[in-house]
């Protein structure tokens, strides 16, 4: 067995691929693996060996001895410290190839190979309409931003080329506001969502706390001054609207939906539109469609408004989201129900009523629902996922049940990060 390197030892290594976190991977002659931040396959780099990390070693990048043609200057001055981005130093085509490989490798680990892959859809900068930032209240000032890379400190964000202009513009104002909110204690999170009618701002202190009357008045004045559509305060798992000047509304395929407080929304409009188009193609001319894990209807309404007007049954585990969907669905052939699909998936008998099924679960995937789908007679399935590993598991279940994967499309909504989503279209063989 090759001896392990010493901590703080300096080495020159050649990067061969990007790892799942976006770090470069290098292997020395003795088989030791090194994870090299901000490096690109093909580069020879000088590194300092750090702590053991998984099956290899974390490192610091000291110098790029032989740069890749895919290297470029990072557009953000925070890059390298901020934990939000890992790939700003890489050209767009190389990032797209990396995102495709992430999905391909995840599926290959489950024996799903030689599949038809589309070129990844990529969201441009300044398009992120949903972000969760950290707040740290210090003596006499506050810090608002993302956590630092590989650390717990909060980077005081001055600019962010990923965020939409409306969200980026709000950051310095939030920094000042946090100073006037003692209920935040030492800090917490703030989630900002941009709807068609304006921003929703949700504060979540690290420790449960109630707002004082003075703080509520401060938040109302802040909403007026910054034209915020809605402000809410999260404490003990409860979301309390504090300032509601107007509904936070979005349009799905031309259908306006008023979002409940704190609702899920796809990170970008471009990504949402692209995924919806893939789903519409995938269900084709199906007359009866089930949309599982439907949220507020971002895929329900694009399907329901197809020219042949299919009947759509939408299911989600949250009462608030189903309520919003039902109110928006007036006049359409849409019904909806509340159901925890992880614990109570649609049965084979229920599924057999549909010509097509769409499912878009959280990161944990849809294993229970995939098991019953694999036994069903549903002709077409469209699987949408934000986690390639659980998508691969669910697709393996479906393929073992007799389905054929016709198309896989990576969708990159998290610009310059190591995250990727994907859509898979299947049919009953």
Describe this structure in words.
- This protein is 24% helix and 32% strand.
- Strands 6-20-21-19-18-15-16-17 form an eight-stranded mixed sheet, sandwiched between helices. Strands 8-7-9-10-11-12 form a six-stranded mixed sheet.
- α5 (300-304) links the parallel β15 (288-292) and β16 (311-316).
- It is built from nine helices and 21 strands.
- The model has no long low-confidence stretch (mean pLDDT 96).
- It is globular and about 65 Å long.
- The protein folds into three domains: 10-71, Beta Barrel (OB fold (Dihydrolipoamide Acetyltransferase, E2P)); 94-124 and 265-428, Rossmann fold, CATH 3.40.50; 130-249, OB fold (Dihydrolipoamide Acetyltransferase, E2P) (Beta Barrel), CATH 2.40.50.
- The protein has helices spanning 92-108, 165-179, 213-226, 269-283, 300-304, 319-328, 348-351, 367-374, 388-400; strands at 10-18, 24-27, 33-36, 44-53, 56-66, 121-122, 130-138, 141-145, 187-195, 198-205, 230-235, 238-244, 249-252, 255-258, 288-292, 311-316, 334-338, 356-359, 380-385, 403-412, 421-428.
- It has 429 residues and is of the alpha/beta class.
- α1 (92-108) packs across α9 and α8 runs parallel beside α9.
CATH homologous superfamily assignment of the largest domain: Vaccinia Virus protein VP39
**What does the largest sheet look like?**
8 strands, mixed
**Count of beta strands:** 21
Through-space gap between termini: 48 Å
Q: Work out the helicity level.
A: 10-25%
Mean pLDDT: 96
Order of helix and strand elements from N to C terminus: EEEEEHEEEHEEHEEEEHEHEHEHEHEHEE
> Spans with pLDDT under 50 lasting ≥5 residues?
none
Overall number of structural domains = 3
The global form is globular
Question: Strand share of the residues?
Answer: 25-35%
Radius of gyration: 23 Å
In CATH's first tier, which class of the largest domain applies?
Alpha Beta
Number of helices: 9
Per CATH, the architecture of the largest domain is: 3-Layer(aba) Sandwich
Stated plainly, the CATH topology of the largest domain is called: Rossmann fold
Structural class: alpha/beta
Strand order, biggest sheet? Answer: 6-20-21-19-18-15-16-17
